Amino acid sequence: MLDNWDKLGVKVTSHMVGTAVLKNPELAKEIVQRGHEAAAHGMNWSTQYTMPYEEEKKFIKDGVDAIKKVTGFTPIGYNANWLRRGQNTLDILQELGFKYHIDDLSRDEPFIIQVKNKDFAVVPYTLRCNDIVLIEGKTFQQISSYNRLKWSLTNYMLKAKLNAAKCLLVFMTVLAVRHKW
Predict the structure, then answer these.
(1) pLDDT digits (tens, 9 = 90+) for 5-17
(2) Are 31 and 38 in contact (CB under 8 A)?
């Protein structure tokens, strides 16, 4: 995928889980070295929305620290596990210096919200090209995932040609590489 994106001049955001980065440091480094954004996705796949404030803050910060240690890049974007942030998540993200999160399905275009009287960006998420709907493996087929991604990119390019609002966030985790998508 990285080679294809290079050929097409496409830059993506890779939401990286801290433990996956530590287990696959060369891949995490390569993603950033090729000019892609490293966003944070927590330290592991724990259920963060049930965590008390300090525990959730440590969980997010540990993931950021792993990414920074391995890639040299400090993430400014965040995605909670299964899009399920807790009641303190946005306050914590802003406190830790994040600029945006993607845990929202309400619209197609990015928008600004207020968190502690400061602007914070929301880049809405789409489930259409994500592993959440495929996680159990019951419906996963390489060709259908490819066709779904191809349709999304084609639709994105068409909207761009029409000067419509455009936003495509390709969600890729180190797990996706394991499946050789």
Answers:
(1) 898 888 889 999 9
(2) yes
From residue 109, give the alpha-carbon distance in Å to each of 2, 41, 63, 102, 149.
25, 21, 27, 11, 18
Q: Could you tell me how far CA 163 lies from the centroid of its own chain? A: 25
Tokens standing for residue 30: 């390569």
CA atoms within 13 A on the CB side of 83: 16
User: Residue type for 54, please?
Assistant: E
Q: What's the full length of the chain, in residues?
A: 181
pLDDT tens by residue, 17-39 = 999 999 999 999 999 999 999 99
Could you give the CA distance from residue 23 to residue 141 in angstroms, rounded to a whole number?
Answer: 26
Contact 93, 102 (CB under 8 A): no
The backbone torsions φ and ψ at residue 82, rounded to the nearest 5 degrees and listed phi first, read 60, 25
Q: Which two tokens stand for residue 2?
A: 């990285």
Q: Which segments of the chain are extended strands (E)?
A: 13-16, 37-40, 77-78, 100-101, 111-115, 118-122
